[in-house]
Amino acid sequence: MLMEAPKTQNGSDVPAIVLDNATRRFVTPDGKMMTALRDFSMTVAQGEFACVVGPTGCGKSTTLNLVTGLARPSAGEVRLMGKPIDGVSPDIGFVFQADALFPWRNVIDNVSAGPRYRGASKEEAYEKARSWIAKVGLARFEKHYPHQLSGGMRKRVALAQTFINEPKILLMDEPFSALDVQTRTLMQGELLDLWQQSGASVIFVTHDLEEAIALADKVYVLTAGPATVKSVYHIDIPRPRVMEDIRFDEKFVEIAKVIWNDLREEVQIGQQRALQSGQ
Predict the structure, then answer these.
(1) Which runs of E-coded beta strand occur in 96-200?
(2) Is 79 within 8 Å of 61 (Cβ atoms)?
(3) pLDDT value of residue 10
(4) DSSP structure class, residue 141
(5) Which one of 17, 61, 86, 137 is most buried, counting C-beta atoms within 10 A?
(6) How many CA atoms lie within 13 A of 194 on its CB side?
(7) Under 8 Å between Cβ of 187 and 156
(8) Is the pLDDT confidence value at 262 over 90?
């Protein structure tokens, strides 16, 4: 049954990620003060997969910037594993919407870059990279360069490049939005397989409500900017989930209708604001 999320956490008593009444303000290029997030609170348990949905421009990506430590809250607090953030943590992995691969490096050199930067020898890094490249189904493409790969294959390299560093926290900013529908579905399945093996805690930002429901343990619905949490839903669809079939499940359809009714109000507010600002 779909319900508002309780404030208790499953698993470890220490949440992986906590944003406690966080507010983020910044000065725009024309000198105006803008509030991206306001009194924003969310909690992600260790090993939990949380998705964030909301209207365009509401501040979803700002949430990730606060968790990485690249941005600091103007008010409130952000904690990782129970401790306030102090700089960029090596325990965080980040997958972007755009490819973050080095175009001048082949697949194995891209994937092995993380271990090399962390002090592993070339032999150690290559051995580990080959294992992860095989896990994402690209064992025959070690020597290929990014421009020689399809969009889905480049995304597999990006996942291997991230998971090889064994992140405790994984932040994903619309990583599959540029892919076609069929490839996106396959990549969602790949991601869930890797995540379930890793035990990482995930915040996944997306505009796609169906994607959020298919992937998540918990879905946060944000208000139109400045963003705050409007509602939180637990997704009680059993795991493991088959991405190719889950959207036809009756429970999935029921959940999507309930959350869309909640999200639609904020999307309409965002559209009205956009029209007014254009006049």
Answers:
(1) 169-173
(2) no
(3) 44
(4) G
(5) 17
(6) 28
(7) yes
(8) yes
Q: What single-letter amino acid sits at 225?
A: G
Quick one: which H or E segment has residue 276? helix 250-277
d(CA 35, CA 202): 25
Walk across the sheet containing 201-205 and list its strands: 92-95, 169-173, 201-205, 49-53, 218-222, 229-234
What mean pLDDT is predicted for residues 155-184? Answer: 95
Going by C-alpha positions, the residue among 177, 223, 243 that lies closest to residue 204 is 177
Strands (E), 178-228: 201-205, 218-222
Both tokens of 137, joined, read 């189904």
Q: What pairing do the DSSP bridges indicate for beta strands 92-95 and 169-173?
A: parallel
Which range (28-37, 116-125, 182-191) has the least confidence?
28-37
Contacts of 266 (CB under 8 A, 6+ apart): 54, 55, 58, 221, 222, 223, 224, 230
Q: Please check whether residue 166 is in contact with residue 193, taking contact to mean a CB–CB distance below 8 angstroms.
A: no
